[in-house]
Amino acid sequence: MTVRQRPLADQLQGWTVEQVAGLLQRRPDLVVPRPPADLVELAQRAQYRPSVDAAIAVTTLAENRLLQLVVCCPPELALADLARALPEGVGLDDLDGPLSALEEAALVWRHDGRLHCSGMLRQTMPTLLGPALTHLVASQTVDYVRSVLKAVHVAVDAHGDSASLPPRASGPDGRPPRKAELVEELASLLALPAVVDAVLAGAPQACGDMARALAEGPPVVRAGGALYFSSYSMGRYDREQPAYWLFERALLFPVGDGYHGVQPREVGVALRAGRPVADLALDPPELGAAPVEPSAVDASGAARVTETLDRVTDLLDRWEEAPAKTLKTGGLGATVMKQTAAALETDAEEASRLVELANLAGLIETTTVTRKEKRVYVYESFVGPTPAASAWRQRELTRQWRQLATAWLRAERWPSATGRKSQDTKLVPVLGIQYTATATQLRRRVLDVLGSLAPGTATTPAALAAYVYWERPQPWLGPGVVSPSTAIGWIYAEAELLGVVAGGALTTFGRALAAGHPSEAEQALEVAMPEPATTFTLQADLTATVVGSLERSLAVELRLLADVESTGAATTLRFSDASLRRAIDAGRDADAILTFLEAHATKGVPKALAYLVGDVARRHGHLQVGSAASFVTSEDPAVLADACSHRRTRKLALRLLAPTVAVSRQDVAKVMDGLRDAGFLPAGDGEDDGGGDDDHKAPSLSIGARAVSLPASGDHGDGGSLPEPFRASTTARQGDVPAVDAATAALLAKSILAGPTPGSARPASPPPLGTVPLPLGYPDIDPDTDADDDAPATIEELLEWAYVNDRALAISLGDEDDLAEPMLVAVTIWEPDRVIATDLTDGTLVSILPEHVGRATDLGPVEEIANVALLGSSRRRSGRRPQRG
Question: Which CATH architecture describes the domain 757-869?
Fold first, then answer.
């Protein structure tokens, strides 16, 4: 008997205002770009694929698996049949929670003892089973279907009970069955577990093992050759392979290139004993609520912040002196990262995270340099600090942390995914290209769950992963996403590295950061940070030991004088000739260095260190180094002095280094030409090509050039623009829609249930134009300027008039002395005390109180204005926004 499907629109006819409002709150995309006019349009939108995908994405694990069970069962499933398909020990009464939630979301609905769902849900809902048999057999010939039916019946006769089989297919009026009837018979046969068991009873061991493995998922396997059917011989060259044996009996079908096979959904369900899902996971896992002292959590998190910032600073210092060379394919290889991890005294995984965090915060960049080797240009890339890194080093620790933490929170990539092998066993290089659009969303989801724990309670990473996955499983199962436990473990480890999480709980500053208040987070971190030290201990072995964190200005000065040797609870720095020369080059002298050390050393300055400082200062400056592009020499000091002081050679900027030697920043050719223009007769140096013939060389002036060396990768030159660091996108993606509050949802529900408003009572003319200009960025629009005595005289009347006549308005909130920038809106729902309007620039809904409108202007028909407005800019509006709710 054919069961008639119950359309969703018919089901919605019996819904109340509260039910429709709940649907709009659960699926806010249904009201974008404008609310539906009636229940028919609402039902249509609820069954569009993007909307169904969005609804599936917010289901719990229990709801998700129940949907998988529903789409794997026949359409219009009787509730009694649903009960038989449930896992053992689960009854219909146990489904009240998830089934009611799915009904509230209009994904499934019950009517006359049957469970219905849309065809789009069956196409969209991902499962571990293959496609339906009817889709797979569509590309096969009718001869193939007849051959399969014959093989199935032979197997049932030999190993099963043929009396329990459904009737054989027959055509209309006694004619032979067509392909459609044969396919229907085949689908009904393979949906019976007894039939599939009978077919596999006579199968070779390898064939049975393959079929049962495919039923557990995934349902795709690679065949030894192309799967095909021939009336003369089915796969005659590869017939002994398991995939071909299964194909001959419709237990496997070719997909894609024909070299891969997929198991039909009906076969997978039958091999699961008619139960598509083994466990519905009806009960959420325990998140855990171990007591913990909030002050201890904050102290631990602050200590981790200090350690992380010290290592990032050390990383920048090391790569400023010696930038890290990248692989030819991009990113940093294993060798470089091992060296970096050893230098930072941490493991390779944490070193990779630190490098990724520095990149996200715009502190490091990749620079490509070029050099010429034997007429061949060689390109090499290095990773080093950006110009912004210098400013970051000078900031307070709390400000440094804020820059790293906010960049991590917005990042559309997994910092922990690099430096390890991917799913195809290839090593993912650090800083390699690997963007994941869902990373930001999933990271915030984990922090939201941690934020739901009351302060003073903690959980474990394993319990957190289980709970987060149960609450929203679908986003973790998309393409390019690693396993949920792995991804959640990454997020937890990164949060610990930044001090956002400590001891299984959010720190106070981590909670503020997760709530979107970075300024409050920075203040909370400042409170949690221990009082910085102002002293250190100097040792006779030329080292300095700092316990805890040093006051910022002192730490900067000490790092200038010495190099970090080890970090941890105490930081060790070592003085050397090179570190002291660096300080003297920066403008320090021996007296200033010793004065600083004596002022902050707890046990004074050791004699060995004092001697080293004095020795380096005495030897400093004996040799001076500068840059020059060319030099000019002459045996006669008077000739050279005349050449340097001549008015025609001023553009050459010749500078005397000695009576017979001068240098210039201009290249050899320009210096030669300039001296000749001034009346001199210069000659080349012999090794340069700037001079003339050796037989006519004048001995008065000799010119040469310096060797051009490769600039340091971190040298960006004077006036170089700051490179744009990596920034995660902060704009909403196409699928993101704003939430609908309860009051707005109730108004929309009333309007949808009432149906479209008749347009009989419409004023004859538009209201008089106001003087509010269009928002910046919109083209000028010339609306109808005619007005009459019936035009609306108040804001309330204008809003009602615009609603009835489908007119677009420019609305400014506030009073005449403080008007906000106009918004371009169309009134969607009108009530005397409140209107719901659609922002024509982005399609969002706004709730507006008439008394808050300071000025409103009619712009013209909504259709005309919307076509222009939707092409407008995505700028941010200033001023106050309409009230919501």
Answer: Roll (2.30)
Count of residues in the chain: 885
Phi, psi dihedrals of residue 304, rounded to the nearest 5°: -70, -35
Q: 773-778, long-range: CB within 8 Å, 24+ apart, which pairs? A: 773/810, 773/822, 774/810, 774/822, 774/824, 774/859, 775/810, 775/821, 775/822, 775/823, 775/824, 775/841, 775/872, 775/877, 776/821, 776/875, 777/872, 777/873, 777/875, 778/824, 778/868, 778/869, 778/872
Mean pLDDT by 10 residues, the chain (885 residues): 76 93 93 86 90 92 93 88 90 91 94 89 86 87 89 83 73 79 88 89 88 88 79 58 87 85 90 89 86 90 90 90 87 89 87 92 88 79 90 90 93 82 69 77 91 89 90 77 82 94 92 92 90 86 85 82 80 89 86 90 89 87 73 86 85 86 87 86 63 38 36 33 28 56 88 67 35 35 43 78 83 74 81 78 77 82 62 35 37
CA distance 285 to 288: 9
Amino acid letter, residue 487: A
Residue 465 has which token pair? 């992963």
Among 287, 283, 286, smallest CA distance to 61 is for 283
8-124, CATH topology level:
Arc Repressor Mutant, subunit A (1.10.10)
d(CA 269, CA 129): 8
pTM of the entire structure?
A: 0.67
**Lateral strand order in the sheet of 655-658:** 655-658, 661-664, 630-633, 702-705, 683-684
Domain boundaries, the chain: 8-124, 140-271, 293-528, 537-619, 630-705, 757-869
What are the two backbone dihedrals, phi and then psi, of residue 319, each rounded to the nearest 5 degrees?
-80, -15
**For 630-705, which CATH class?**
alpha beta
Give the integer Cα–Cα distance in Å for 468 and 449. 7
Report yes or no: 727 and 362 within 8 Å, Cβ to Cβ.
yes
Burial class of residue 458, CB neighbours in 10 A (0-12, 13-18, 19+) = buried
CA 112 to chain centre: 45
CA separation for the pair 783, 124 (Å, rounded): 45
Handedness of CA 401, 405, 411, 416 (dihedral sign): positive
